[in-house]
Amino acid sequence: MTIELDPKSLPVQQLWSSPQLAVIVPTFNERDNVVSLFELVSQAMGEIPFEFIVVDDNSPDGTAAVVKELARRHANVRCIHRIGRRGLSSAVIEGISASAAPYFAVIDADHQHDERVLPQMLEKALAGDDIVIGTRYAKGGTAGEGLSKAREAGSRLATRLSDLVTGQPISDPMSGFFLMRREIFDEIAPSLSNEGFKILLDIIVSARRARSRHGKELRVGEVPYTFRPRHAGESKMSSIVVVQFLGLVLSKLTGGLLPASFLLFGLVGGLGVFVHMGTLWATTALSFNFFWAQTIATIVAMTFNFILNNELTYANKKLRGWRYLTGLFTFYAVCSFGAIANISVASWIYTLDRDIWIAGIAGVLMSVVFNYSVTKVFTWR
Fold first, then answer.
1. CA nearest 249: which of 164, 169, 178?
2. Coil, strand or helix at 104
């Protein structure tokens, strides 16, 4: 039996028009920005029906509560309050997946992206573009006062490197401001990485490959805008994000065979070798016998690796408080077993080939794979 309701009898806030566009806003500690952003987006969209989906990673400042209060007053506002899950890329994927709108846009909550160009971006998508990027670097766009000189230089370097994997010139692949057709996202969603803070490059590369397999071309459009200073709160952008982006570029160069997190984990391990050797040299210079010098160097290197992996490789799962201490000890334990795996594999290969270099490299690779796989499950779960 179908129940029909008379729209005239419904309160205004319960009337609902199917949205043409979903605006996805990933947040962490943005309570002072989300309400004003909604008002700005509403003004920019005019008569275009849209929904405003905030994906909040359980912000300590109460962002989710602010959005839920906003949703009680506006039927097109939704809050996805994530508990125990963090990371911009995974938040974006989750927000998009929660909407049925035929088009969606991703925009930061801090007002640095110019919401006034959203209708223009949607217009280009309706005209046939698969992805439309809000760009700071095409003609008519500028980084304005929103980026420091160092951040702008890093962003431009990443732009040049991204050409290696996109196969087409993209003026601003590090942009977090873009709009695309849902059907394109649905094609590639299972292949997207939920790690890191820059998802656009992943989307472009994955979509281009998916389209080419079916003999289709990926149409990418751009709309220039002026990047504005942050409205309130603290920026999440740092040199760590740039390094993570480079890890994503390398991962895409391998066709996704090697995850970005594995490459970053390996990079940290390589730096740990230098820390180990430097500590070993310093302790032997202080007249420690080799056993104690090696023990101290090993502990220092493992501690260094843990700290850097927590800040870089697993920034979206960063351990704090008591979890930081328990994570450190599980990391010690896993790396100890990793050393056993290293020695075992290297010794076995040496008995077959008698080549110390091949055996040594195989042992190192074994320990890296073992440590990465196990710490991902037990330390940064």
1. 164
2. strand
Interatomic CA distance for residues 260 and 201, integer angstroms: 13
- Spatial separation of the C-alpha atoms in residues 53 and 37, rounded to whole Å: 12
**Per the structure block, which two tokens stand in for 119?**
């209708």
How many beta carbons lie within 10 A of that of residue 247, not counting itself? 24
Residue length of the chain: 381
Ordered alpha helix ranges (H), the chain: 34-45, 63-73, 88-97, 118-126, 149-166, 182-188, 200-213, 239-253, 260-285, 290-308, 322-353, 356-378
Per-position DSSP letters for 215-262, written without gaps between them: T-PPPEEEEE-BPPPPSSS-----HHHHHHHHHHHHHHHTTTSS-HHH
- The model's confidence at residue 92, banded by pLDDT at 50, 70 and 90, is very high
Instruction: Provide, rounded to the nearest whole percent, the portion of the chain with pLDDT above 70.
Output: 82
| Whole-number Cα distances in Å, 310 to 159, 299, 375 | 26, 16, 11
- Give the pair of three-digit tokens for residue 172: 């601003």
Q: What is the DSSP secondary structure assignment for residue 142, as one 8-state letter?
A: B
CA dihedral defined by 259, 263, 268, 273, rounded to 10 degrees? 130
Pairing relationship of beta strands 103-106 and 21-27 according to DSSP bridges: parallel
Average pLDDT, the chain: 82
Task: Report whether 356 contacts 349 (CB < 8 A).
Answer: no
Dihedral angle computed from the Cα positions of residues 324, 329, 331 and 332, in that order, rounded to the nearest 10 degrees: 150
Q: Kindly list the domain boundaries of the chain, sorted by start residue.
A: 13-234, 260-378
Query: In terms of CATH architecture, what is 13-234?
Result: Alpha-Beta Complex (3.90)
C-alpha triplet 79, 109, 121: angle, nearest 5°: 100
Segment 25-29 mean pLDDT: 91
Q: Which two tokens stand for residue 7?
A: 């729209």
- C-alpha torsion angle, residues 164, 170, 172, 177 (rounded to 10): -120
How far is residue 169's CA from residue 69's CA, in Å, rounded to a whole number?
42
Residue 108 tokens read as 């930061």
101-131 residue pLDDT tens:
999 999 999 889 999 999 999 999 999 999 9
Q: Considering only CA atoms, which of 230, 248, 252 is closest in space to residue 32?
A: 230
* pLDDT for res 145: 62
Residue type at 141? G
